[in-house]
Automatic annotation (TrEMBL):
<keyword id="KW-0288">FMN</keyword>
<dbReference type="InterPro" id="IPR029039">
    <property type="entry name" value="Flavoprotein-like_sf"/>
</dbReference>
<comment type="function">
    <text>Quinone reductase that provides resistance to thiol-specific stress caused by electrophilic quinones.</text>
</comment>
<keyword id="KW-0285">Flavoprotein</keyword>
<comment type="subunit">
    <text>Homodimer.</text>
</comment>
<protein>
    <recommendedName>
        <fullName>FMN dependent NADH:quinone oxidoreductase</fullName>
        <ecNumber>1.6.5.-</ecNumber>
        <ecNumber>1.7.1.17</ecNumber>
    </recommendedName>
</protein>
<keyword id="KW-0560">Oxidoreductase</keyword>
<dbReference type="InterPro" id="IPR023048">
    <property type="entry name" value="NADH:quinone_OxRdtase_FMN_depd"/>
</dbReference>
<dbReference type="InterPro" id="IPR003680">
    <property type="entry name" value="Flavodoxin_fold"/>
</dbReference>
<feature type="domain" description="Flavodoxin-like fold">
    <location>
        <begin position="1"/>
        <end position="203"/>
    </location>
</feature>
<keyword id="KW-0520">NAD</keyword>
<dbReference type="Pfam" id="PF02525">
    <property type="entry name" value="Flavodoxin_2"/>
</dbReference>
<feature type="binding site">
    <location>
        <position position="9"/>
    </location>
    <ligand>
        <name>FMN</name>
    </ligand>
</feature>
<feature type="binding site">
    <location>
        <begin position="15"/>
        <end position="17"/>
    </location>
    <ligand>
        <name>FMN</name>
    </ligand>
</feature>
<dbReference type="InterPro" id="IPR050104">
    <property type="entry name" value="FMN-dep_NADH:Q_OxRdtase_AzoR1"/>
</dbReference>
<comment type="function">
    <text>Also exhibits azoreductase activity. Catalyzes the reductive cleavage of the azo bond in aromatic azo compounds to the corresponding amines.</text>
</comment>
<comment type="similarity">
    <text>Belongs to the azoreductase type 1 family.</text>
</comment>
Length: 225
């Protein structure tokens, strides 16, 4: 199997989401040491933002694209190729202002691309997906300063990270029921609740890795202290 690990934290050090991602991958490779792992660090090496030139190139048939247009789409082509090869996508990200960081949104914008990963069918009013992007599992590993974003929680209505990722996940080839979320909370408080949340999330990430690596059914996980 092939893993694509997308890190979205701008921190090189002391990043809790990177720590979760590293724990997940380490546990996975302990069971499946010959699997491939590709790292895409959007938190440090930011994806290009969409521009008018990008949109024009995107809607131009491949055989009519100029060299300049192909260059504009080079990042998107590479990111989509990585995604197409992946069986499991791991997104490790902080939650900023109740949603995903701008760099992660930019990555989604680069890989969800008309005529490459989906197309419009105006007659049927559907958006067929590319056959290259199917049968994938997505693991979302997040960290946040606040708490209680889960169902019934104090901040459930303010939670826009997981719903946004879940909506976009189908365009990555992730079917319903194949997205799993492990979260660290309470970071801004720095108290025992945060320490417990870190411990629980690390345990949850490792347990999820073991279940998925063994191809066992794994229900969605939310380890939130």
């Amino acid at each position: 199997m092939n893993l694509l690990v997308v890190n979205a934290s701008p921190r090189r050090e002391r990043s809790l989401s990177r720590r979760l991602g590293a724990a997940f991958v380490a546990e996975w490779l302990a069971l499946r040491p010959h699997d491939g792992v590709v790292q895409r660090d959007v938190g440090i090496e930011h994806p290009p933002l969409l521009t008018e030139a990008w949109i024009a190139a995107c809607f131009t048939p491949d055989e009519q694209q100029t060299p300049e247009q192909r260059e504009v789409l080079a990042y998107s082509d590479a990111a989509i190729a990585e995604l197409a090869r992946a069986d499991l996508v791991v997104i490790a990200t902080p939650r900023y202002n109740y949603g995903m960081p701008a760099a992660l949104k930019a990555w989604f914008d680069q890989v969800i691309r008309i005529r490459r990963t989906f197309r419009f069918d105006r007659a049927e009013k559907t958006w067929p997906l590319s056959p290259l992007l199917s049968g994938k599992t997505l693991v979302l590993l997040s960290s946040s300063g606040e708490f209680a974003f889960g169902p019934g929680g104090l901040r459930e209505r303010w939670e826009h990270l997981e719903p946004h990722v879940r909506t976009c996940a189908r365009y990555l080839g992730v079917a319903d029921g194949h997205l799993h979320h492990v979260a660290i909370e309470y970071q801004e408080f720095g108290d025992e609740r945060h320490s417990a949340s870190v411990r629980d999330a690390l345990d949850g990430a490792q347990e999820l890795a073991r279940r998925l690596a063994r191809s066992e059914p794994a229900p969605g996980v939310r380890a939130t202290g």
